[in-house]
Amino acid sequence: xxxxxxxxxxxxxxxxxxxxxxxxxxxxxxxxxxxxxxxxxxxxxxxxxxxxxxxxxxxxxxxxxxxxxxxxxxxxxxxxxxxxxxxxxxxxxxxxxxxxxxxxxxxxxxxxxxxxxxxxxxxxxxxxxxxxxxxxxxxxxxxxxxxxxxxxxxxxxxxxxxxxxxxxxxxxxxxxxxxxxxxxxxxxxxxxxxxxxxxxxxxxxxxxxxxxxxxxxxxxxxxxxxxxxxxxxxxxxxxxxxxxxxxxxxxxxxxxxxxxxxxxxxxxxxxxxxxxxxxxxxxxxxxxxxxxxxxxxxxxxxxxxxxxxxxxxxxxxxxxxxxxxxxxxxxxxxxxxxxxxxxxxxxxxxxxxxxxxxxxxxxxxxxxxxxxxxxxxxxxxxxxxxxxxxxxxxxxxxxxxxxxxxxxxxxxxxxxxxxxxxxxxxxxxxxxxxxxxxxxxxxxxxxxxxxxxxxxxxxxxxxxxxxxxxxxxxxxxxxxxxxxxxxxxxxxxxxxxxxxxxxxxxxxxxxxxxxxxxxxxxxxxxxxxxxxxxxxxxxxxxxxxxxxxxxxxxxxxxxxxxxxxxxxxxxxxxxxxxxxxxxxxxxxxxxxxxxxxxxxxxxxxxxxxxxxxxxxxxxxxxxxxxxxxxxxxxxxxxxxxxxxxxxxxxxxxxxxxxxxxxxxxxxxxxxxxxxxxxxxxxxxxxxxxxxxxxxxxxxxxxxxxxxxxxxxxxxxx
Length: 717
What we know:
717 residues; mainly alpha; 3-stranded antiparallel sheet; disordered N terminus
């Protein structure tokens, strides 16, 4: 339409700039001077000694953007209101009306007021939630660590593989595109897209020649993005121009400035290449969904919509608190979007159409999802029965069991155990939780373990805890000496642990952290927590690379570290379970703490009984004083295993491991092989730790007596 009809003309839409809309621009707002009722439509841009004056390109582009955005908002509001009035969902009211459901907009150049029955519905139809809230200086600084860590994690090659697996399993189960087939087709798409982008770098070859058509359909619809990132936000046009020059390889090498910037351009080129990996893997599953829906329904709009809804990163919420949290917490928005899709799938409000484009009812969608996920859950007992007695499964920590499935039996041939990442919401409800219940019935888990795991998963999935804010999280963890993910101390608090900060390190602590810790009189473990907390996996990789430099150029006395296995690789590390995991060590220390707790409570109960406090008698069934001697014998055995026995014990194993690491006459490969043998000896020594802990918690003292007697027989042989 043209002129002044039901919808505003261009001039009227421009007036919205002066109507109080919250569109922030920097520099002189020259567009305000175009108000037809202003005293002077020509405004001279003045400089300032105290305020930053933007370059003309930036000022013009930002003011033009403000005009376009506000005009589009007004058009959207008018059209939505027109349709809602036709549907009986809104009515015009006087401008003076005071009601939370009253919406004001400009029609024909005049302000009008309308009362809507459902204001959130009106706002949802507009689809103008402003995206991520504009950030001031403080919020922008607080968001920087989150961005660094998120970008670092998503640019690690192993993240790409895990993303394809998780997205494929989730889409296949909830949307019905085939569980395993979606995963394998996503992998095939990732390979095809990667090859296509590489071939497009050849002179004369374009992406249109090497990439599938569906990729361009999704890209043009705004679906193709990096993980949890819709569009880069630049503060001024000058940065956009410079970034375009850099990405195009345009640099003036005849100038000193151009030569100085060349190494940085090379580094950023590698960084951008890694960013392409995130785009490829995020698109691969979406492309499977797009092709599947298009094939079944022939509806391209439906195919694009379903491809976007797998994880819709354009949805960031209108609530300011939610926007702040998504700005400060790494991966908060993807987790919320994942939970939203999960909830909508089980309430029948999410899902594809039937073949031929026929819409499905809410009940039909719900039934289909329940059947698919029930089949998914039916595999959990088979998995548990296959792995429960394997050494690899017993050595896993609680956190590893919650996040991964393992494929045992490969350690002898490959030196490691392959593992598959669990999708977050789907894996928790239909993988981890049923597995915990099976372990509980098999007397390998306690209700305390289940409660702790549920709390850990809930806080990790919801991402609402203020202590998870990336700007402060590493410092808070060090200050409180508590790792929020593992629930373990950052620095050991056991009585035998050293109190001198410089000595608070492990045998495997990288030399870089040791050197920095000595310089700052700070625990190397705290240095490691802070550095890796703010730099992510690439920060840890830099510290590992620095080990060799420190040994050769900084401190010749620093030991060369053992070579790393596949579990430390940036390419497949997350898909490899360590050859000798330390889960049993954690179980042993938990058992020691539980033993001390039992004996302390029993002693307190005995003291109350001795002084005639009859209120204490009914506690006898809880603490079972008749087994105090049995638990004391267990305590002695644990002490012998820990450090006091002259035979094999943890103290000697730790000492032997340190001797091997400090022996620079051995190659890193030799050190690794010997240390793996030492860790295998350690795990054999602690094989019964978890069984004993569960037995003590559940009061199964016969198992404890059997363990003590067996240890006594071994010593008498």
